[in-house]
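testing teh design pipeline on a random one, pls ignore if ur not involved
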C-alpha cells in the first residue's frame, strides 16, 4: 500500500471509481511531469447528491463538503493516469467553480473544502495556488466543480 493510500485509509476515505466523462474529454491527462484533471463534479455512485445554486438551494457548508468530494474525484482521475499517488511531488494549482446565487460571495470558503482535503491527504505536497470562481450555472446543475494540476516526481 502506498503512503497516500495509507493516509486515505487513516482518514476513512476511499478513492472512488473515476467519473466517466460527460462529453468529449478525458478525466485527466499527463503532459511531461504534470497531470491536469478536467473539472470534477461531486459525483457519488454516478449521480450528484445535491443540485442548485450555493446561497440558494444549497448552503455554503453543503457546498464545502461537495468540494471535498470533487477533490477526491480529482485524485482518482490523477491515479488513473499515473497509477500511484505517491508519485505526486505537489499539487500546483486548484481551480474551483461555484454555481452561485446572485448575492453569494463565499466562493473561497466553499473551495476550502477541496484545498483542505488535499492538505489532509497529501500534507505539504497538497499546498497549492488556487482560484475560486463564482459562475451562473455548472453542468447537470452541480453546485461546485473542481480541477487540479499536479506535478510528478522525476522518475
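output:
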Amino acid at each position: 500500500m502506498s503512503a497516500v493510500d495509507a493516509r486515505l485509509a487513516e482518514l476513512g476515505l476511499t478513492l472512488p471509481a473515476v467519473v466517466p466523462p460527460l462529453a468529449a474529454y478525458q478525466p485527466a491527462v499527463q503532459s511531461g511531469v504534470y497531470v491536469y484533471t478536467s473539472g470534477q463534479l461531486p459525483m457519488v455512485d454516478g449521480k450528484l447528491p445535491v443540485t442548485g445554486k450555493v446561497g440558494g438551494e444549497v448552503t455554503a457548508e453543503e457546498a464545502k463538503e461537495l468540494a471535498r468530494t470533487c477533490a477526491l474525484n480529482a485524485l482518482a482521475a490523477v491515479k488513473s493516469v499515473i497509477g500511484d499517488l505517491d508519485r505526486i511531488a505537489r499539487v500546483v494549482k486548484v481551480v474551483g467553480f461555484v454555481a452561485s446565487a446572485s448575492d453569494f460571495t463565499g466562493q473561497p470558503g466553499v473551495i476550502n473544502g477541496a484545498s483542505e482535503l488535499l492538505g489532509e491527504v497529501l500534507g505539504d505536497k497538497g499546498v497549492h495556488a488556487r482560484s475560486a470562481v463564482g459562475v451562473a450555472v455548472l453542468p447537470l446543475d452541480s453546485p461546485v466543480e473542481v480541477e487540479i494540476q499536479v506535478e510528478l516526481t522525476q522518475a
